[in-house]
Design brief:
It contains 20 helices and twelve strands. It is an alpha/beta fold. It has two domains: 310 residues, ABC transporter type 1, transmembrane domain (ABC transporter transmembrane region fold), CATH 1.20.1560.10; 242 residues, P-loop containing nucleotide triphosphate hydrolases (Rossmann fold, 3-Layer(aba) Sandwich), CATH 3.40.50.300. The protein has a six-stranded mixed β-sheet. Helix 7 runs antiparallel to helix 9 and helix 10 packs antiparallel against helix 11. The chain is elongated and about 120 Å long.
């Protein structure tokens, strides 16, 4: 996994190298200090030689200052490397998300994707920023200190041959047990984020139905699940400290016992034992830091695996990059199209759809709930790919167009109106970034949005909150229609996008749309009044084409259309 993630560090490998160099140099200076300290005690203090004391003391001070400066430089370079790595990793995930099709997005929950981009990436980023020092310092310090201890006293250093394997085995057991808990902990974070996201998005519904207690109980449940798995993971990892302390104290007792006997026997001096103990503490401290790194890396591995699941997700839709095809007319054909969301599904959502939509015509689509009206039109800009058959535009399979060219020529106003935080102008310019005020005004006029936009004190520069929550449903729909019109598309699709406006406003919008030239318009609606004037009306039932015709033909011959028309006529009379 480290090999897979390393390319995202490539831009900051210089900072990474400098951080590692600073750690190594800092460690060397720290390791030299006990050598000077031993001479200071054995030669300077024992013999009362002030020159030696001053000389060794100044050398120790110099080493300490160098170590301090290198430590500061390390902190700077490690921060640059870690934060830069995290930024590149987030960027790579976000770019991959932009390539996701609806099928890809269906594999992950929104909350899980947010957690992977934020929490999981932050854990790995922190592991780099905070883990370089112990990961590089510990092996260097341990190896160098071991060499010094064996050089000072070979017999006494052999104690490590017993204590270090004991510590290593204990740490391996802890890491092995705690690893599964870290992944479960991140999955529990996903669940918490799901509940929070749903509650915030549906807060008006929650308040309207007085379901505060229910939502609090649901949140409490997932929160306790996160608490439980966190307690288990940290309860396991916390054994690292007592294990380390037990080994340290046992090692120190053994060293003092055998070292003290050697001093009494005259085979070792006090300064040598003092320097030896200093190196021992450095070795054991290195082991402690290394064990913490292992725990940090274990948690990072769990986050890294989740991030790689996003980066490795195979894109279910390919686009010919060298295609120069452009949509000129806007005719659409469905040739025996069948579709299901998952290949393993037993039944099709759409079955054997065979339709021809002439360029420049206006088509209405009617059908009951679940008749797959929205699914049908989503196949045109390849939001999904057909399971069987072909969708053609201008007599070319939609798969022959590059996705960017295909979708640039098609505008969709979806059932769920989406506006972004920013000004009305900024939201409209999504349709055409180069549109001037005259084009904006015309689009607003056709969509009947000008009547409220210019009534705001700031007009086009009125600020919209996230999702356009400071607008009514009808206002949001009209702004989305205006945004689509600014694209000047060859194919314009309305997916029940006038459901929140009154009949008079809807008729005004339809009159404005009638002015569009050379544009194929598809209108999905629940009200027959929305599609009565269309050139053709398509009736869908259970994912199949039930009938195609104009208002007069269907009124005379189609039972489904007659029932819908009669029910709505009676409803209007009531």
């Amino acid at each position: 996994m480290i090999k897979r993630l390393y390319p995202y560090m490539h831009k900051y490998k210089k900072q990474l190298f400098l951080a590692c160099f600073c750690v190594v140099a800092e460690t060397v200076f720290e390791l030299i200090i006990p050598v000077f300290m031993a001479d200071l005690i054995d030669v300077g203090i024992s013999q009362g030689n002030r020159d030696v004391i001053m000389e060794q003391g100044l050398l120790m001070l110099f080493c300490a200052l160098c170590s301090l400066i290198l430590g500061i430089l390390y902190a700077r370079y490690a921060a640059l490397a870690g934060q830069g790595f995290g930024a590149q990793l987030r960027k790579a995930q976000f770019e991959k998300l932009q390539d996701f099709t609806f099928s890809n997005i269906d594999h992950f929950s929104t909350a899980s994707l947010i957690t992977r981009l934020s929490s999981d990436t932050a854990i790995i980023q922190g592991a780099v920023s905070n883990g370089i020092r112990p990961l590089v310092r510990s092996p260097v310090m341990m190896l160098s200190a071991l060499i010094f201890t064996f050089a000072i006293n070979l017999k006494l250093a052999c104690i490590f041959l017993i204590t270090m394997p004991v510590l290593g085995i204990g740490l391996w057991i802890i890491v092995h047990k705690v690893a599964p808990y870290y992944r479960r902990m991140q999955q529990a974070v996903d669940k918490v984020n799901v509940v929070v996201q749903e509650n915030i998005n549906a807060i008006r519904v929650v308040k309207a139905y007085v379901r505060d207690d229910y939502e609090e109980a649901k949140f409490d449940k997932v929160s306790k699940e996160l608490q439980a798995v966190s307690v288990r993971s940290f309860s396991t990892s916390v054994w690292n400290l007592p294990l380390f302390q037990a080994v340290v104290y046992a090692t120190m007792v053994c060293l003092l016992w055998f070292g003290g006997n050697m001093i009494f026997e005259g085979s070792m001096q006090v300064g040598e034992l003092t320097g030896f103990l200093s190196y021992v503490l450095q070795i054991l401290n290195g082991l402690m830091m290394l064990s913490n790194v292992f725990l940090m890396l274990t948690r990072s591995m769990a986050g890294g695996e989740r991030i790689l699941e996003v980066l490795d997700e195979p894109i279910s839709m390919t686009s010919p990059q060298d295609s120069e095809l452009e949509i000129i007319e806007g005719s659409i054909s469905f040739r025996h199209v069948s579709f299901k969301y998952h290949s393993e599904a037993s039944e099709n959502v759409l079955s054997d759809i065979h339709l021809s939509i002439p360029a420049g015509s206006t088509i209405g689509i009617l059908g009951g709930t679940g008749s797959a009206k929205s699914t049908l039109v989503q196949l045109i800009p390849r939001l999904y790919d057909v399971s069987e058959g072909q969708v053609l535009i201008d007599h070319h399979d939609v798969k022959e167009y590059s996705l960017s060219q295909l979708r640039a020529s098609i505008a969709m106003v979806l059932q769920k109106n989406t506006l972004f935080s920013g000004t009305i102008r900024e939201n409209l310019l999504w349709g055409n970034p180069n549109a001037d005020d005259a084009a904006l005004k015309q689009a607003l006029r056709i969509s009947c949005a000008d009547e409220f936009v210019y009534a705001f004190p700031n007009g086009l520069d009125t600020w919209l909150e996230q999702g356009g929550v400071n607008l009514s449903g009808g206002q949001k729909q009209r702004l989305c229609i205006a945004r689509a019109l600014l694209k000047q598309p060859k194919i314009l699709i309305f997916d029940d996008s006038t459901s929140a406006v009154d009949s008079a406003t809807e008729q005004s919008i339809k009159a404005g749309l009638a002015q569009l030239k050379n544009t194929t318009v598809i209108i999905i609606a629940q009200r027959i009044s929305s599609v009565m004037s269309c050139d053709q009306i398509i009736i869908l039932e259970d994912g199949k084409v039930n009938a195609v015709g104009n208002h007069d033909t269907l009124s005379a011959n189609n039972q489904i259309y007659q029932e819908i028309y009669q029910s709505q006529k009676e409803g209007a009379m009531l």
